[in-house]
Design goal:
The complex is a heterodimer of chains A (237) and B (89). By secondary structure, chain A is mainly beta. Helices cover 0% and strands 56% of the residues of chain A. In chain A, strands 1, 13, 14, 15, 16, 17, 18, 19 and 20 form a nine-stranded mixed sheet that branches. A seven-stranded antiparallel sheet of chain A has the order 2-3-4-11-6-9-12, with no helix packed on it. A four-stranded antiparallel sheet of chain A has the order 5-10-7-8, with no helix packed on it. Chain A is globular, with a radius of gyration of 17 Å. Chain B has 89 residues and is mainly beta. In chain B, the strands form two sheets. In chain B, strands 2-1-5-6-9 form a five-stranded antiparallel sheet, with helices on one face. In chain B, strands 3-4-8-7 form a four-stranded antiparallel sheet. The chains are: A mainly beta (237), B mainly beta (89). Chains A and B meet through strand 5 of A and strand 9 of B.
């Protein structure tokens, strides 16, 4: 089953320094029917103005992944970690028993666009930790490139959940297939461009699809399409 | 001032000056007055609450990792927190 969530039916929030598009219930937007997809709890598409960001705040019991699309994002935390990511880099933070951090766009001039994803960890009370990794952006073209997975490897951040996050830039007219195991779900999120799922469902920028009970997903770019695909357990509430 | 927020997105469930914090061993018993609607929200989201005591230059963050949150006989909310972190703001 492919459930498409169009941007215009979604929820967003904005102020003078951030514009956020929420895929799941977040902040003052709460819909008990849209709280999670398997272990995935948050997918926010944030654009932050220069020299602005989220000041110091706590997290706990979450695997927080940040993916830079454009611009820069600076992370600092109570463990003493500090890092700036830009396109081609991914952050993974294990909040575990508790961590304080800030996320700021350090640019003086350029806004930054980032995806922030939260997953429930497979184990509670993990020690907090942080890493950022750099992947080869040339490997995104017309294939699925894993950037976050349960096991760390070169260019892949390690997450404490049975989840793999892929990024891909599919050129117009090109296609690829993702084969899925039984009892697992797929989430597809379009960062830019547009693509057909199984030749039937057209999804564009900031649209997403939550997919269950499908052994193979065919993705074809209607126009040049930058998207994220997440392979995760279950998929039901 | 005590603020109780949802851990996912910081939705504010309660803001009050009517509260007490009593240390007990390695835990803290936090009791606060709350209206019925506030109590309902706090109990519905008891697994995902962050508590903040907000000072002029610092905040103190508490949470209960086992969601030990209940309504008292007097109609207040009581949280038994096992985590406390103080940080500057």
């Amino acid at each position: 089953m492919i459930n498409v969530f169009k941007k215009e039916d979604g929820h967003s929030a904005s102020n003078d320094w951030v514009e956020s598009h929420f895929s799941f219930s977040f902040g003052n937007y709460y819909d008990s029917d849209n709280v999670r997809f398997g272990p995935m709890r948050v997918l926010n598409d944030d654009t932050i103005q220069p020299n602005k960001g989220f000041g110091i705040h706590p997290h706990r019991e979450a695997e927080v992944v940040s993916i830079a699309i454009t611009g820069q994002l600076k992370h600092e935390d109570s463990l003493g970690n500090s890092g700036v990511i830009e396109f081609g880099q991914v952050q993974r933070m294990t909040a575990g028993t508790g961590i304080l951090h800030s996320e700021i766009n350090p640019s003086e001039t350029e806004p930054g666009r980032f995806l922030q994803l939260w997953f429930f960890p497979h184990t509670k009370q993990l020690p907090p930790s942080y890493e950022d990794v750099k992947f080869d952006v040339n490997q995104l073209t017309n294939q699925l490139l894993p950037v976050v997975a349960p096991s760390a490897s070169a260019g892949v951040a390690m997450i404490h959940q049975d989840v793999t996050i892929y990024l891909s830039k599919l050129e117009q007219g090109k296609s690829l297939d993702f084969n899925q195991e039984e009892d697992r779900g797929i989430l597809v999120y379009v960062i830019s461009g547009a693509a057909y799922l199984d030749n039937e469902h057209l999804i564009g920028k900031q649209d997403s699809a939550r997919i269950t009970n499908l052994s193979s997903l065919h993705i074809k770019a209607e126009e040049d399409c930058f998207f994220m695909l997440i392979d995760l357990p279950g998929g039901d509430l | 001032m005590l603020m109780i927020r949802h851990a996912i997105g910081s939705r504010l469930f309660l803001q009050t000056d009517d509260y007490t914090i009593t240390p007990e061993g390695e835990k803290w018993i936090i009791t606060a007055g709350a209206k019925q609607e506030e109590l309902d929200n706090l109990l519905a989201f008891k697994e995902e609450l962050n508590l903040f005591v907000v000072g002029e230059n610092e905040k103190t963050w508490y949470y209960s990792s086992d969601a030990e949150i209940e309504k008292t006989e007097a109609g207040n909310i009581q949280i038994i927190a096992d985590h406390k972190t103080k940080y500057p703001v």
